[in-house]
Design brief:
The complex is a heterodimer.
Chain A: H1 3-34, H2 51-61, E1 66-70, H3 79-86, E2 90-94, H4 100-113, E3 118-122, H5 144-147, H6 155-158, H7 161-179, H8 186-190, H9 208-218, H10 230-243, E4 251-256, H11 261-269, H12 273-287, E5 293-297, H13 318-330, H14 343-356
Parallel strand pairs in A: 1-2, 1-3, 3-4, 4-5
Chain B: H1 6-22, H2 30-45, H3 49-74, H4 78-113, H5 128-143, H6 152-160, H7 162-165, H8 173-181, H9 190-223, H10 229-260, H11 278-284, H12 287-298, H13 308-326, H14 330-349, H15 351-354, H16 358-377, H17 381-392, H18 401-404, H19 415-435, H20 439-444, H21 450-466
Helix pairs in contact in B: 1-2, 2-3, 2-6, 3-4, 3-5, 3-6, 4-5, 9-10, 9-21, 10-16, 10-17, 10-19, 12-13, 13-14, 14-16, 16-17
The chains are: A alpha/beta, B mainly alpha.
């Protein structure tokens, strides 16, 4: 290689370094300014919201005094209804199919921020059957670089695929289309609302026929878990979960969502019912009586036998969410310390009623 | 550590380049080589520390055997020399067999004899098929007197040189070591560095931007194959493109990295989908594997020296071995067998096929190779059959299912937009593989001009943006 060629190559490499570093820095600054995942500031009705990416930022930067944490069971909760019935300022922190460890991750983030005075926490008792709870190898659905306060790993966000290839361009395009008065699908507009984050009620219909179809395709309503040591495993997981709570940090309202009678029928058929109900009783016994704890058990609500309230065996319609909020206000379905009859008995009675109905004969084995 | 990661691009590579060329001031190559070996082993151990012990054991034992073979050869003790070679072959095949084929073997015994021997579910050390093959070839070269090993560090460098360690190209001792020992290559060469950066960047873009984008379509399609023939064919096409851009992207990165160290790593891909026959495909796809299988399987079996029928049989057997090398499952064996079948058929039909217009031959080869990737990709034979059944079920087009291929759980786009996205990407990439020049052709005319500067900066920046996506190279599994 001649001296001239070496000089040219050196210059080319130096220019390449300067250009790429400059572009990347400009992009990082732009992402910091736009901040589609609210890691530095929360702005309503600006960006399309995917809970996986924005919930950590919302917990850090949004204005709230009440945390509402849970799975798809809470995603149709109306935040205005919380404000109206419970006189609180809520923030919904959710992800579909959230695990217990992810629930705890969000809970811990709320604790770290110290803004929440109340915690509404949905308990899907089946998730305590997990064999990988607290397994550090199981990756969280929430990206680590968004969950922490460590700035040095923010490059994964500021120069990240999700921000730059998805949410920034799509959100900007929607904003421009809106300004140009282009008719956009309603869901694009509602999905920018912090109150309505992860809401799915408009994407589905709720009826017995739909449940029937879904049930026929999926075969089983209950996730298959190993029955070996199930009772011990669930108790151990519950203990671990409770050990991570700081009950002095504010009022804790735990609630068990109203799955359909068909779900419980399947749980009985597959041998999980007793385990799940016993685990629920263990959970209740360990927490009931604490001055900062209230527990609501909606699982024996009478409507669980009517599949017209459901889209599948577990997911209920938004009017049920509304009713649950009213229950939080009225105390209906709240579990009292002196409860003598285990909750399972009433669920069993409802399942029997459900299966006795001839129209539900199709579900019989 | 994978090439397409922040830690590799922004920490490991700059540190190792800087250290290597700073050590060029030392009198001999020893410190440079040692530095590269340590760096390469760190690169390997970064995946899993446990792997380090396996590769170290493999290097030490193979080196010891090579010394023994050489020592007894000098004394013309052919019998003993042969003994050490056989020991080496048994050791390497045994190691590969234990880690890669144990469960496959036991699983088949259990199935045939209704036994219930325990499967070990061993963690397959990354790149074991590659570094075992290289060492195996080295022992044979030593035995034949074609190579000579001089010291342990050089041997360890030949096996562990990080650009080609995990997924090839499969290199030979005699094409690598003279380059490492060449004093004129010890110092930084800015021309090579620029060309290396250019090739690496193209490879990075091919992997992290193109392959990982179509991987989504392929994964969605193969996860739920019964969505109609349009979605099935789109998924198969997506995988056809994914595996090419993934593996050739990796090879480009390896070649680019080698170039940065003034080392020429052999070419592994030469626009394989432009092939006009399956035979030609194998001369353009994973070229170094083809070379190795030809040398160590096909020729020892007799090659084409024992008559026509035996040649066909040898070819077929070589492809069966190729299938098994790729994976310990009957789907891989079948994949290899079909390739072998087509290669043999092409030999038999010979000049008859040449009368067919080139574009028809090229299209037919592409369809055959793509369809056979189903066996390669599917998790089981039953899943492969499910996909094949969807591909020919013309009564169920499943146009709307095309939208499902683009679902990534980030933003729910309207179905028509997803369909346009999937179709557009697949069409553009298919055109690219048929018409565009490949990386090595581009690198051959590379100049440090403004056009290449802008292109490299753009590809690199876009690639960096894609690094936050989790991904792994397909060929790491082999």
């Amino acid at each position: 290689m001649t001296t001239l060629e070496t000089k040219q190559a050196k210059k080319w490499l130096a220019r390449l370094a300067v250009i790429t570093i400059s572009i990347l820095m400009v992009m990082a600054l732009a992402a910091y300014y736009l901040d589609p995942f609210f890691a530095y500031r929360a702005r309503d009705k600006t960006f399309l919201l995917n809970p996986r990416f924005v919930v950590p930022g919302l917990i850090k930067n949004h204005d709230y005094d009440t945390a509402v944490i849970g799975s798809s069971m809470i995603q149709n909760f109306s935040m205005p209804a919380f404000r109206e019935h419970l006189k609180v300022n809520p923030l919904k922190a959710t992800s579909g199919g959230i695990s217990i460890s992810e629930t705890l991750e969000l809970y811990q983030l709320f604790l770290d921020e110290g803004k929440a005075k109340r915690f509404y926490i949905n308990i899907d008792i089946g998730t305590f059957a997990s064999e990988s709870f607290m397994d550090s190898n199981v990756e969280s659905i929430f990206p680590g670089y968004l969950m922490d306060r460590y700035v040095l790993n923010d490059y994964q966000y500021l120069l990240g695929y999700e921000a730059w290839m998805r949410f920034i361009p799509v959100s900007l395009a929607i904003g421009l289309a809106e300004k140009a008065s282009v008719n956009l699908p309603e869901k694009f507009l509602t999905r920018r609302s912090i109150d309505r984050i992860a809401e799915w009620k408009d994407d589905f219909s709720f009826s017995r026929d739909i449940v029937l179809k879904e049930y026929a395709e999926k075969k089983y309503a209950v996730s298959q878990v190993s029955l070996v040591n199930l009772s011990e495993r669930m108790t151990e997981n519950i203990d671990l979960f409770i050990s991570r709570l700081d009950l002095n940090a504010g009022e804790h309202i735990f609630f068990f969502p109203p799955y359909s009678a068909l779900y419980w029928f399947d749980a009985m058929r597959l041998g999980y019912f007793e385990y799940f109900q016993n685990a629920k009783d263990v959970f209740i016994k360990k927490l009931i009586g604490h001055e900062n704890v209230r527990i609501f058990d909606f699982q024996n609500a009478r409507f669980i036998v009517d599949l017209n309230h459901y889209k599948d065996t577990t997911h209920y319609s938004p009017d049920i969410n509304e009713w649950m909020i009213e229950c939080f206000a009225s105390g209906q379905h709240e579990v009292k310390a002196e409860r003598s009859v285990p909750g399972s008995a009433s669920i069993e009675a409802l399942v029997n009623q459900f299966m006795a109905d001839e129209t539900n004969a199709v579900f019989r084995p | 550590m994978v090439f397409s990661s922040y830690e590799f691009i922004f920490v490991f590579l700059p540190v190792i380049l800087l250290g290597y060329f700073l050590l060029s001031k030392t009198k001999t190559t020893f410190w440079q080589h040692l530095f590269l070996v340590v760096g390469s082993l760190f690169f390997y151990a970064y995946f899993n520390v446990y792997y380090l012990f396996i590769i170290l054991a493999s290097i030490v034992i193979n080196y010891f055997l090579s010394i023994q073979i050489k020592a007894v050869s000098v004394k013309n003790n052919t019998g003993k020399s042969r003994f050490f070679l056989i020991l080496g072959i048994v050791f390497n095949i045994g190691m590969l067999g234990y880690y890669k084929y144990y469960d496959f073997f036991i699983g088949n015994i259990n199935a045939v004899f209704q036994t219930s021997f325990h499967l070990k579910h061993l963690l397959l050390p990354l790149g074991i098929s590659f570094f075992t093959f290289q060492q195996f070839s080295f022992l044979i070269a030593i035995y034949n007197g074609e190579s000579k090993s001089e010291n342990f560090i050089e041997y360890a460098l030949f096996v562990s040189f990080f650009p080609q360690l995990v997924a090839g190209p499969i290199v030979l001792y005699d094409e690598m070591m003279p380059q490492f020992k060449d004093a004129s290559r010890r110092n930084i060469d800015y021309g090579n560095l620029a060309q290396g950066v250019y090739i690496f960047t193209i490879g990075l873009f091919k992997k992290i931007v193109i392959a990982d984008t179509v991987a989504l379509f392929a994964n969605n399609g193969f996860n739920d194959p019964a969505q109609g023939y349009l979605a099935a064919w789109a998924a198969v096409l997506a995988y056809t493109l994914q595996i090419y851009f993934d593996f050739s992207g990796y090879s480009d990165m390896a070649i680019g990295l080698g170039k940065m160290f003034n080392i020429n790593i052999p070419i592994n891909f030469r626009s394989p989908y432009k092939s006009k026959s399956v035979t030609e495909f194998w001369k353009r796809w994973h070229i170094t594997l083809g070379r190795a299988l030809g040398t160590y399987v096909y020729i020892p079996l007799g090659g084409n020296r024992k008559g026509r029928a035996r040649t066909y049989l040898n070819l077929f057997a070589t492809f069966i071995v190729s299938g098994l090398w790729h994976g310990a499952a009957w789907t891989f064996v079948l994949w290899g067998a079909f390739h072998g079948f087509f290669v043999v058929m092409e030999r038999i039909l010979g000049s008859l096929l040449e009368k067919i217009p080139n574009w028809i031959r090229m299209a037919a080869t592409f369809v055959i190779v793509s369809a056979l990737w189903v066996l390669f990709r599917a998790e089981s034979f039953a899943k492969a059959m499910e996909m094949y059944s969807s591909m020919i079920k013309f009564s169920t087009p499943g146009f709307s299912a095309l939208a499902g291929l683009a679902v990534d759980g980030l933003i729910g786009f309207p179905a028509m937009l997803n369909i346009a996205y999937v179709s557009g990407i697949l069409l553009i990439l298919t055109l690219i593989v048929f018409t565009s020049r490949n990386t090595i052709e581009k690198a051959g005319v590379f100049q440090t001009n403004t056009k290449n500067l802008i292109l490299t900066a753009a590809l690199f920046t876009i690639s960096v943006i894609h690094l936050s996506k989790e991904s792994i190279f397909i060929y790491f599994n082999f």
